[in-house]
Amino acid sequence: MSTPTRSDGDSARQLTLKLLVTIVTGGVVYVLTNVLLPREEGPWQLVLSVLCGGTVLIVQYMASFVNQLSDLKDVVEKRFADIGEATKLFNEVEKLRGDGVPRLAEHATKVVSTGPDILHEFAHEEINRLARQMEKLTNLSADCAGENHDWLINLTQGSRTSIDAVSTTVVDDDFWNSEPAGRYLTAQREAMQERHVTVRRVFIMKEGQDRDSLAALAATCKEQGEMGIQVRVVPQERIARRIGRGKMIDFIVFDEAMSYEIQADLDGGISSTAVNAGLSEVQTLIRRFGMIWEAAKDPNDDPALNGLLNGVPDGVPVLPDGTDPDGG
Q: Could you tell me how many helices (H) and strands (E) the chain has, helices first?
C-alpha cells in the first residue's frame, strides 16, 4: 500500500499557516514588549519580535521535518518488508519448473489492467480458484464438485510409469462416447507410446445389465484393447465374493503415487471428484485395485464373460471369439 502524497494545494495551505503563525507570534511579542516596557525605546523590540517569529517558524519546520522522517521511516521499513517477502517468494518460485508460473504472473498483471470490469473480476476469480487449489494440495489432496476432466487429463499427461483404473459403471453415462473421453484416451495413447506407461483398466459389470449396455461395454473393451490398454471385466457379484460388499467408487491410481476418485450421488450421477497423494490412502487403493484385477478376467479368455458381452444367454458355452460351438 503506497503512502498518500500531498498535493500542491495542501503544501500551499501548510506554508500559509506557518507564515500566519509566525506573523502572529512576532506581532504578539512586539505588542507585549511595548506594553510591558513602554518607556524603552530602540530597535530591540522589533528585533525581538522578528527573532521570536523566526524561532517559531523554525520550530514548525523542524516538527514537520520530524513527522516526515517518521513517515519515511515507516515507508522504508515497509519497503524492506516487501523486499523480504518478494525475495522469499522468488526463492520459492525458483523451486518450480520454469513453465507456467512466470507466464501466469506476467499475463495476470496484464489482464487485470485491460478490458472491461467483468474481465477483471473473472480473472481475479480464476486466480483465487487456482490459489485455493494450490493451498489444498499442500495437504496432498484436493476436491471439487462434479467431475473434473482437466484433472483427469493433466494427471494422465503427467504419468510416467502406470495408470490403473477401476470403472464401476458400464458406459459411465455414455462417457466413453463423449468429447472428454476422446481427449482422455488420446492422452493415454500418448502416454503409452511416448513414455511407455502401462495402462490397466477394470470394468465392473452391474447385475442385470441389458443387452445394449453389454454391447456398449464389449465395444469399449475392444477399442481400448486395440489401443494397447490392458482391459479386464468382472461381474459385481464376483467382487462381492472376493473383497466383500462395500461402497464401490470409480478410481484411478497414477504412478502408484496419486489417486483420482469419483463419488456418485443417489441418482447415479457424479457428485464430486478428489485427488489424493497421501501415502496411506493411495496404498489402500493400490491394494484394492490389485484384488479387483486378480478377480477380473480378460473377456476374450473367459467364455462366460465373452458370452455375456456378446449377448449369448447364460449357460450356453462359447468359444473365445464368442461363437457357439454348435454353430448356432
A: 10, 7
